[in-house]
Amino acid sequence: MKEPYGVGLDIGTNSVGWTVVDASGHVRKIKGQTGIGVRLFKEGAAAADRRGFRTTRRRLKRVKWRLRLLREFFDQPISKVDINFFARRKYSDISPRDPNYNGLEKTLFNDRSDQDFYHDYPTIYHLREALMTQHRKFDVREIYLAIHHIVKYRGNFLRNDAATAYRSGTLDLQQHFETLNHLFSQADLELNLNLTTDVALLDSIKQTLVRTDISRSDRQKLIMPLLAVLTGATTAEKKRQKAVVTEFAKALVGNKTKIDVLTLTDIDATEAKDWAFSLEENQDKLPGIEDRFSEVGQQIIDEVIRLYASVNLAQLIPEGKRFSQSMVEKYKRHGEDLKLLKAYIRSQSDAKRGRAIRATYDQYIDGVKSKQVTQEAFQKALGKFVDADVDLNSWAAQIKQAIDSEQFMPKLRIKQNGAIPYQVQQNELDQIISNQKEYYPWLGEENPVIKRRGKFPYKLDELVGFRVPYYVGPLITKEMQAATANAGFAWMVRKADGPITPWNFDDKVDRVASATAFIQRMQTTDTYLIGEEVLPARSLIYQRFMVLNELNNIRVDDGQLTPRQKQRLYNQVFKKHKRVTAKNIQDNLVAAGEFPTAPRITGLADPKVFNSSLSTYHDLKQVLPEAGCKLIPETTFKRGYNE
User: Fold this and answer.
1) CB 265: neighbour CB atoms within 10 A?
2) Measured between alpha carbons, how far is 324 from 127 in angstroms, rounded to an integer?
């Protein structure tokens, strides 16, 4: 076009609208077509979902890796008594009409019926309990099935102590409470909240938290007055303290909690819904809000989650009992409750109502559209029927009492099982091996990794206790992944070729080189100094820059700080306090004789506290106290450095 024209664009997240107009604003014709249109395309998606799927695939692949190694360990002994045992298991879910069906029988054993086996061991926990307590020679296939279950569901790695040091029912509230008191004081000095550290009160709280005969709401009410004494000087301060204690109590018993109140995080009222959930949902809910936490707020929620997991564990495994033993008792409780429910259904004069009651149980067991129905949802649905009959039906009264305590018809597979640490599973594995190695000496083979024998005495223990370090990533080199999958999510560096197992990991994988590659692949370049690598946000030098930058921006009674004042504040305040408040600055300025009374501090994003701190310096000083003074030299400001 020779005449002047203009192009207008409307750019959206999944479309670009455009138009071509002349100098008068009229739409032009372009090659016979009206110069207006829109291009639609798929909206950009965040990497979080894709990363989540990739992480899940990697986790499941490692589960299969461990189970394959377990099968290799048992292959020869089992093949001597049942050569097709593993083949039958592999093809057990293949239909006889499927071309891949190998013609083998759909039975677990070749010399007895599945009915006989399940009569003796209704659940895998019955088998595990028998293997630990009955001193007789078991079928090697039974031993494999029990250990297969232990290895597949080996538990979390939140604890660092050895399996031999674990004791069921232990709940150290004092350590957690002391840590939280320190964090609350760091987060807000004016809150002045101190959770109790009295031994008698802590024991009462523990006994209440592990009770299973009352509801969560009742447990919350009982522990509330025991958690802390409200020491606020004013009614407003006491109200604020009570709000934090209330949310803390809710979090401990598993009720819906206002996470913003618990972590002392300021949010808009419109966001309140996203910040209210039970800690049972923390893995689903926290990723959406964790970037809003302050450093101390993140530490508070992490500590509360650890404490909640400990409470769950103490409930799951009562003091003095084994894990499998508690699961067997839960199975028996479910059976007794089922008899009670059937009696209640039979007592219904209306057959349609009876079928509706039965349907609530069927959905609880089978799920709805492949989605699991929780015990809470089942009890709520059943409670609607029971409440109407409670005054007229003795069965309904008994069921209501069990529902009120939230213990009616417990399931074995629940989210709460995520609180079980691997030490619990390893303990049971070691007991099984110890009980059966008299008959199968090869079961007690020592751990080939000599330096780990203290915590993991048997070779099989490594399948439960070994973890691929996060900084190693997928067990495939970058070059092999690029060649086979055209992907770039691997960075592992090998020392030697050959299959990698938990027993030869350090011989095959270069940990240091892999860790270096892990860090380097995440590094990017600075947006100001083009081509220069960025510094870690918590490095000593970058935190120093952030503190100085924030000091430059503040105003004291509308005046700037002098270089000498900044130097003193940096060395006397920031290097002495991990969390610096405006009051700390005011006190220092008054103590130096530069102001008769506390001056007004402005220019901070948060009027009460500095966002930046020398947290890494303080953390390192705790580890290396004698070298703390050398981590960051005394600051001497030069002209231009702090401008």
Assistant:
1) 21
2) 9
- Helices and strands in the chain: count of H runs, count of E runs: 26, 9
Nearest to 546 by CA among 538, 534, 557, 558: 538
- Model confidence at 454: pLDDT above 80: yes
Q: Is 560 in a helix, a strand, or coil?
A: coil
Q: One-letter amino acid identity for 545? A: F
Distance separating alpha carbons of residues 492 and 476, to the nearest angstrom: 6
Other beta carbons less than 10 A from residue 145's beta carbon: 19
Helices 375-389 & 323-346 angle (0-180, nearest 10): 30
For the chain, state the CA radius of gyration.
32
The Cα–Cα gap between 119 and 117 comes to 5
- Specify whether the backbone of 572 is left (phi greater than 0), alpha (psi in -120 to 50) or beta: alpha
State the maximum Cα–Cα separation within the chain, in Å, rounded to a whole number: 98
Nearest to 583 by CA among 560, 563, 606: 606
Category of 478 on φ-ψ map: left (φ > 0), alpha (ψ -120 to 50) or beta: alpha
Terminal CA-CA length for the chain: 53
As a whole number, mean pLDDT of residues 175-179 equals 91
Helix (H) or strand (E) holding 555: strand 555-556
Contacts of 340 (CB under 8 A, 6+ apart): 395, 398, 399, 402
For 18, the enclosing helix (H) or strand (E) is strand 15-22
pLDDT score for 633: 54
Structure confidence at residue 634 as a pLDDT band (50, 70, 90): low
Alpha carbon 579 to its chain's center: 27
Tokens (6 digits) for 71: 């099968």
> How far is the C-alpha of 619 from the C-alpha of 451, rounded, in Å?
29
Contact indicator for 244, 283 with CB cutoff of 8 Å: no
Exposure on the CB side of residue 438, measured as CA atoms within 13 A? 11
Q: What would the mean pLDDT of 333-339 be, rounded to a whole number?
A: 95
Comparing 15-19, 188-192, 394-398, 472-476, the range with the smallest average pLDDT is 188-192
Q: Cα–Cα distances in Å, from 400 out to 89, 116, 342, 378, 407?
A: 42, 36, 14, 13, 10
140 pLDDT band (50/70/90 cuts)? very high
Q: How far is CA 457 from the centre of its chain?
A: 28
Token pair of 131, please?
A: 């293997």
Global pTM value:
0.78
- Model pLDDT for residues 418-440, shown as the tens digit of each residue: 888 999 999 999 999 999 999 99
Please name the residue that has the structure tokens 């006989």.
Answer: 116
Report the distance separating Cα 395 and Cα 345, nearest Å: 9
> Which residue in 176, 204, 157, 141 sits closest to 59, CA to CA?
157
CB hemisphere CA count around 269 (13 angstroms): 0
Strand ranges, E, within 184-310: 257-258, 276-277
d(C-alpha 632, C-alpha 617), whole Å:
8
In this predicted model, what pLDDT tens digit does every residue of 113-123 receive, in sequence order? 999 999 999 99
What contacts 67, CB < 8 A, 6 or more positions away? 148, 151, 152
Q: Beta partners for 311?
A: none
d(CA 219, CA 254) in angstroms, rounded, equals: 10
Amino acid identity at 243 = A
Residue corresponding to tokens 């009222």: 269
Residue 19's pLDDT band (boundaries 50, 70, 90)? very high
Closest C-alpha to 480, from 497, 468, 505, 502: 497
